[in-house]
């Protein structure tokens, strides 16, 4: 039963079902206490990881955070691997069918049913081979299990570092450095053993890494006004999210639990459930079945989609209208509807216009339609054209005010660079301007055709609300909640 319990435990971890994982852990511990101890620590870490507890520093002492725990588990696994590989090396060298082929065969027979990618790990390996005995078979079981857990720890350590860097973003995401970590995680996964790549747990991690990477690339592409790269990476991120949700929820295995609390912590809910939890778990399908990190990535991609839609609204609306739609249908499945927010604000507060100004730089090509080929001839716009309007409500940009807007922006570089709002009253024409930087290239401008002797609280609040939505402030702050 040891191979079966190992396979079921890996599947349960991939489905974020820690109650089920714990049931198989109990049987593993009885047969092999050392393996049980390592699996127990992995379950504890995975529970904290999936609830994003590693972003809450008060939970651990400085020297005992989750990254360090994964590191310590990896060291212990390496030590055990040396012991069991010495025992099983003869078996691995002499078998007629190697373990990798056995696992691939299991995948082809159905990874989502009872036949797990790591189901009957050593039993498939030993079918038709000249076995050297039970000791070698047990060693092979341990090698497969420890290989998966060792690579799991390596991947989690990279991802924890990536999420922590992302959580430190306040108003501007350090995409370039984050992409380095995301690429490293993807390379580590792609070069990992077949055992983890084809397991439910490993497949889920692969999707998680890809969602992170595509989200980061999309964030940079939207900021640089590249619609093709933005749409492509949005699609790839959504596909990866959907597949990740599907494989994590559709697994069938022994003792499957339907109660997976939104906030899980092994200190309270894995090894000892309260009576309230037991009552809740009796009702199938009434609870969130996806962990916090999957949910958070979904929120982040949705926020990026919202930003992409308003930045490229002119282009997207043209396509929507060609298919018989309008503004409402364009924003129908996007939350929040930023265009609707701006429209409602103008109706209530009475500004002349709300516009987004793109500031062209030398290192990024720009096209008003969002399509720029790296190989096509390109001449950077100059003068007023180097500050194009990418969005405006009402639709006609306030071009008469553009020299004033550019002058204010150029005179407020330090204020805007630190993402502080700027208020300016032009006494010559009697107009008031409110400006805030959204990201590296784009600022939002609210224009009133009357005099505001002091900054209007409603205008300043809306400016911060709108800029915050487009900077993903609420989504990023969710990573830092205590």
Describe the overall structure.
The chain starts with a helix and ends in a 5-residue tail after the last helix. It has a five-stranded antiparallel sheet with strand order 2-1-5-4-3, with helices on both faces. It is built from 21 helices and five strands. A hairpin with a 4-residue loop joins strand 4 and strand 5 (442-448). With 482 residues, it is α+β, with helices and mostly antiparallel strands. Helix 3 (33-50) crosses helix 4 (66-94), helix 10 packs parallel to helix 14 (292-311) and helix 11 packs antiparallel against helix 14 (292-311). The protein folds into two domains: 2-214 and 265-289, no CATH class; 339-480, Beta-Lactamase.
Fold blueprint:
Elements: H1 2-14, H2 18-31, H3 33-50, H4 66-94, H5 99-108, H6 121-126, H7 134-167, H8 175-190, H9 194-197, H10 200-223, H11 227-249, H12 266-270, H13 275-281, H14 292-311, H15 313-322, H16 327-330, H17 338-349, E1 353-358, E2 389-393, H18 402-411, H19 413-417, E3 422-426, E4 431-437, E5 442-448, H20 457-470, H21 473-477
Antiparallel strand pairs: 1-2, 1-5, 3-4, 4-5
Helix pairs in contact: 1-2, 1-10, 2-3, 3-4, 3-7, 4-7, 7-8, 7-10, 8-10, 10-11, 10-14, 11-14, 17-20
Helix % is 55-70%
The main β sheet shows up as: 5 strands, antiparallel
Low-confidence stretches: 59-64, 91-131, 260-288
What do the pLDDT scores average to?
Answer: 82
Tally of individual domains: 2
Biggest sheet: strand arrangement: 2-1-5-4-3
The dominant shape is elongated
Give the structural class. Answer: alpha+beta
Distance between the termini: 42 Å
Radius of gyration over all CA atoms, rounded: 27 Å
Strand content: 5-15%
DSSP strand tally: 5
Note the run of SSEs as H and E. HHHHHHHHHHHHHHHHHEEHHEEEHH
**Could you state the oligomeric state of the chains shown?**
single chain
Count of alpha/pi helices: 21
């Amino acid at each position: 039963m040891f191979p079966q319990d190992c396979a079921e435990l890996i599947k349960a971890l991939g489905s974020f079902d820690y109650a089920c994982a714990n049931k198989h852990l109990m049987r593993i511990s009885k047969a092999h206490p050392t393996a049980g101890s390592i699996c127990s620590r992995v379950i504890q870490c995975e529970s904290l990881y999936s609830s994003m507890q590693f972003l809450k520093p008060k939970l651990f002492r400085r020297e005992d955070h989750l990254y360090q725990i994964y590191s310590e588990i990896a060291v212990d696994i390496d030590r055990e691997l040396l012991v069991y590989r010495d025992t099983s090396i003869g078996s691995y060298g002499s078998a007629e069918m190697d373990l990798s082929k056995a696992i691939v065969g299991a995948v082809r027979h159905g990874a989502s049913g009872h036949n797990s990618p790591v189901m009957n790990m050593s039993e498939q390996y030993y079918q038709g081979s000249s076995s050297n005995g039970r000791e070698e078979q047990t060693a092979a079981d341990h090698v497969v299990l420890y290989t998966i857990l060792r690579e799991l720890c390596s991947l989690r350590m990279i991802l924890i570092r990536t999420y922590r860097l992302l959580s430190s973003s306040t108003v501007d995401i350090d995409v370039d450095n984050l992409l380095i970590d995301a690429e490293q995680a993807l390379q580590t996964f792609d070069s990992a053993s077949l055992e983890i790549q084809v397991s439910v747990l490993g497949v889920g991690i692969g999707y998680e890494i890809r969602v992170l990477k595509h989200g980061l690339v999309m964030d940079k592409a939207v900021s640089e006004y590249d619609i093709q790269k933005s749409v492509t990476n949005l699609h790839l991120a959504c596909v990866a999210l959907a597949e990740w949700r599907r494989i994590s929820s559709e697994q069938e295995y022994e003792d499957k639990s339907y109660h997976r609390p939104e906030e899980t912590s092994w200190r309270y809910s894995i090894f000892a459930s309260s009576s309230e939890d037991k009552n809740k778990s009796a009702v199938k399908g009434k609870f969130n079945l996806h962990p916090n990190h999957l949910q958070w990535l979904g929120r982040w991609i949705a926020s990026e989609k919202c930003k992409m839609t308003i930045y490229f609204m002119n282009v997207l609306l043209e396509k929507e209208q060609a298919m018989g739609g309008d503004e409402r249908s364009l924003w129908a499945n996007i939350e929040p509807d930023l265009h609707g927010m701006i429209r409602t604000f103008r109706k209530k507060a009475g500004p002349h216009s709300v516009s987004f100004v793109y500031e062209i730089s030398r290192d990024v090509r720009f096209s008003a339609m969002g399509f720029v080929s790296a190989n096509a001839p390109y001449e950077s716009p100059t003068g007023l054209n180097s500050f194009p309007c990418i969005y405006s409500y009402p639709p006609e940009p306030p071009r008469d005010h553009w020299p004033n807007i550019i002058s204010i922006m150029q005179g407020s570089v330090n204020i805007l660079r630190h993402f502080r709002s700027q208020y300016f009253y032009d006494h010559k024409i009697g107009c008031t301007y409110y400006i805030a930087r959204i990201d590296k290239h784009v600022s939002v401008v609210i224009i009133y055709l009357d005099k505001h002797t002091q900054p209007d609280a409603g205008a300043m609040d809306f400016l911060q609300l709108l800029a915050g939505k487009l900077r993903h402030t609420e989504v990023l702050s969710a990573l830092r909640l205590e």
